[in-house]
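Researcher: I'd like a structural prediction for the single chain below. Treat it as a standalone chain; there are no partners to consider.
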Amino acid sequence: MSDAERDSKEAARNSPGAVASEQQAALRERPRNAAALHAPEPARQRVQRSDHGDEAVLDDLQRKAFRFFELHVDPDTGLVLDSTQPDSPSSIAAVGFALSCYPVAVERGWMPKELALSHSLMAARFFDRADQSGAPDGVGYKGFYYHFLHADTGRRAWQSELSTIDTALLIAGFLLAAQYFSGDSAEERELRKRAQNIYARADWRWAQNGEPSITMGWKPESGFLPWRWFGYNEALLLYVLALAAPQFGVQPDAYAAWTSTFRWRRVYGHDVLYGGPLFIHQFSHVWLDLRGIQDEFMRGKKTDYFENSRVSTLIQREYATRNPRKFAGYDKNCWGFTASDGPGDGRMLTVKNAEGKRQRRRFYGYLARGAPFGPDDGTLSPWAAIASLPFAPDAVMEAVRYLEDLIGHSPKGFGFHASFNPTYPDGAPGGGWVSPWHYALNQGPIVLMIENYRTGLIWRLMRDCAPIRLGLQRAGFEGGWLQEKM
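Model: Treating it as a single chain, here is the predicted structure.
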């Protein structure tokens, strides 16, 4: 490794964006006991289809991923469970993804429009009416909401933080629902009104806590979290929403404070705005069509965020191909490093590597895994590869077909397992470990990014959403579809 490569590696690993991703993963980590960590997963099922064309494969993946939301939504409140773990709470991000998936389900004939509207309206009523006192057992404060809520009462769970990013994902879902349900019925008008109320109530200026950048969150017991949205990460959507907020919007210096911490790297011969975990390069793109539009930073680099995500996806594939750490199973078609469930608890174990040699490895639970600079413990997430479909369709479809032959789908009917680790000595059929759970934050991007690739539905709806256009313009984006009149 050259000095330049070594410097790039160390700087990328310790960049603000990488640190923010690790902090967010820590906030998302679910309490688990030893029994739950190794809960048995039924034998993996081979994928059975009469049609093996790309469209049939995508139909199947989308439909199975959406089943998570069908089966885990409370029809009275619109709240959606975070995962299939026992006693899982709802997460506000899960609701945001569900709200965004309902239009896809209607258009594809999986759900009647009346039911999709009902789920969306129930969620809008719940959050619009929710307690905003900031009480430790409340629902939110200053227009933001606690990350996790008890599924039965709708009140704060796990002493979670008031989360700015998860509130942003929730708001994005409501704005999309308001765009899709554009009819003149009383229910659709009410949904749009309540969605606007929810967006307007968020006090982004308060969330700045005296500085231009936005904090990650707040707790009633201790105040603001010590971390801010710095470095390249999933916060692009957050800043766009904060810039266009109708009552408590931030100034453009907030966005400038964020981009000022970006670090441009050269990785495997590619110049890239580095972010190790793939979700960094995907979450904002679920709702924002960033093809061909540029802010000041990207104009200076003569590229755009969509192209950057394409390059970042190919870097992950190249890392798996090279497999420098010799993990079992890595291949040019077997990749997907992101925030995900994992097999361990941080302890070291002796395992066999890809060459059959015994090595000491440390394995983690829920962690923001990244490539090529780590952290990496041999855990792979098929959903992360799938959610890059719009960026690199050929590479992703090759990975999908390879992974279906390798591990099949979960017998629970939700498509691929959330994650798996061929290196971990779990004794599962075929070797390795597979996650026994499924997560809303995995299933949602599968549905939505496949749809963006196939029809552009989400992007099209959000391009016509006035706050999205305004937020992008206030962030300094120009060109492409932003030049077109609404």
